[in-house]
Amino acid sequence: MKGIEMKITIATAVYYPQINGVAVFSHNLAVGLARRGHQVMVICPSQTGKNYSRLIDGVKTVYLKSVDAKIYPDQIHAVGAKKKVLGVRWPRLWYKHGFRVSVFPQREIKRALDDFCPDVVHVQVSDPIGLSVVWWAKKNGVPVVTTEHNQPDVITDQLHMPIFVKKPANAMLNMYFRNRQSKSDFVTMPTEKAIRELLGKGEEFPVPVAAVSNGVDLSNFKPGRASSELRKKYGINSDAPVVLYVGRVDPEKKVELVIEAAKQARAKTPQKQGQNDVSRLEVVIVGDGIDKARLERLYRDEKWVHFLGRIVPPELYEVYRLGDVFVTASEIETQGIVLIEAAATGLPLIAVNAGAVGEVCQNNVNGLLCEPGSVVEISDAIVKILSDPALRERLSKKSIEIASEHDFEKTLDKFINIYNKVAELEAGK
Fold it and tell me: Distance between CA 362 and CA 89 in Å, rounded?
């Protein structure tokens, strides 16, 4: 099969134009494989509710019938502020544009796969779509590759479970994830740490497992400062150092900790002239989500905090250049595509020592790792980096070097090799 055009199906619960790690990775993978000359079909929930297909960026995209799960936003439309009733701002229980879910997709999936006849299927999420695609593949002798993007904590942390519920829930989810992966012919995860945390240390797993970075297209990210026009567009002072965050603005991302840490950094440093004046730093938050309206209301009088909302490429590539340091307090990352993108732009990174971010944000190499939830440590890290141009330059060079290891072309090479391997093994049975 090596060097031969393959027919590849990618199954995912979230896809472009949604903005999250799985959606971005799935889209990049599909378009990259098509660019390499392979026939690619993506199966995902429809954003209209109806079943239809389109050829987008050289990829046949099959949108399955779906229902509107209004308990979570769709990551496409802006999330508005909570409504007031009798002067009281009530908790939001539903969203106008909800997350789309395909509940019973078996028949549609069978029809699509019978027509496409893939050589290999690549499943991204353990939802009804992923499970149905695996069922079809096993029935028809087609090899299955799965990528596990989740960890149990990613789910239970969002549900704010008490610890006595969270621990057994994590154990059950871990068993479910392991069981699902064991039905595959090959399993990948973005980092070695993610593999260790889900599958354990030194344990024998019944199928091959490999760490394959989500990767980014490095050609889109260039180090350097953003244009004065872009700073003016978003109301950012021309010589103020900038703390940048890009990603979902949801409670589990802990964006408020980033802003509070920056606030402390401003307060604890004496004023001085130029780009190293930490007392004049500004914060730029790029993205949308459940928590954005609350945070905008909370910091409406802080003119140094800028909420830019949802920005997509190609403008996003230039927006990264607004930053002098990239900061995240999220504890649920299995890798973090935005961290790779920030590093590729030459930004020093500040993150918390949780999840698998330590493989991109390497402590005292291209950034600083802090204790989870510690505003003081994040604040100290911001001051340390922004007040020391030599340190910032050293970390920046290392960020570019580390990002080069996550070139998406290398990611494509690895997945194509995996597809070839499992297809050859299946053909030899």
Answer: 42
